[in-house]
Here is the input.
Amino acid sequence: MNILFVLNGILIILLFPPVFKLLFGLEGIHDYLAGFSRCLLWVLIIAMFVLRLSKIQYSPIVDYVFAAVFSLLSFEILTRAFIKYGAAILPTKRHLLTDIKRKITEAAMYGVFVPRFEPHPFLHFTLHRKDLENGNVAMGFMNITLKDIPKPSDTIRVACMGNSTTIPYPLFLEQFLNKACPQARFQALNFGLGWWSSLHSTVNFILNVIDFNPDYVVLHENCNDHNYRGYPGLRGDAVHAYRSLTIPGTQDIYWSRLFVLYRILAALVQRRFPTIIRRHYSMEKSILKPGKKYVYDPRELYILERNLETIYAVSKHRNIGLCLMTHPFSNVLKYGEEHDKVYRPHMIKVNEILREKGARYGLLLIDADQLMTGEEDLFLDPVHVSDKGNMIKSYLIGCKILEDLNLPMHIEGEWKEIENWVKRKAATLEADGDRESNRKAS
Here is the structure.
């Protein structure tokens, strides 16, 4: 009994809120409700201690409740201590335990299911910019870190910029370039990000991309520039449409911030049964203001044109080859009836602008729209394409770059199949064009 009193007394000291936060805090964020709840738990432990000292008669059930609370809080403290100090105690497991600590701390921010994006002071949002080993830092893009900035010698570097439709193809592009022209070394960097528009890519080009000293930049922007259209009060920074990224916590955020044990249990459940607990939030509502009307003003596209002009001017000044790629789309799949009334006309108009800019400035133009639009077997939704579609994009880009560098190409294997598809489609388009010309002539 004396041992229980001693342990109860120790628990009172460790659960004292300032002591608990100093020794065992793993939240990285202050939550008033969770903080207040910890104060109540501390008071409960004190009440347990006082009740045991007193001679008041109480039901044995109370003893069971006290024992359960005592065990839970003791285990919570031990778990927190191991997570927080385990890396120092077990240096051979330092990397693993540091990663666990980071994930546990992140889970307190949003709940167990950490959102894909995080706010950025200038770029609106990016992927997570994590601290890595040896002072390295993730830049907030797919597989790009701070230590990737210096360009390896004898490497031709291609920076791929755009939205979610950009994300899948850079890996294919790098594979194609290195297989088609093995005497040179190519690197494709993936600066594509879901929900980004040409506004985001332009700022990112200035703040990040040029630091990587690319030889070529491929800009694949179109569909998401419709996001800032249809709002009143048009302005060049698009604040009339966009707002700061706000991501609500999951419904279990209270328990996640109160108990580390809950975070661990929920993570294990989610890993084993991924459909049981999910995060439900709308990225559209998180970054865009309400009040959008599906009635677009042609003047809104001055933002896109200005962004293209800016990227072109900086690219020219820094001797970077700029490639513009038109955007293919499905003629059948839709995001919604109202949405579709303006979405495809928007994309058609932007593709025209891209062709006009490419011709005016003598840029490398990859007309993926001409070859791929309407090829329904390539599309997963109105704008995102399958692996085959992304390989076609990569082939088109790669051929343009190799042609511009005056380097030979040797195409074989699965890339030969892609080349044959492109040649067949080009021949079909040419034949259709000849028939149309003959029809008009007659």
Q: What stands out?
A: The longest strand covers residues 155-162.
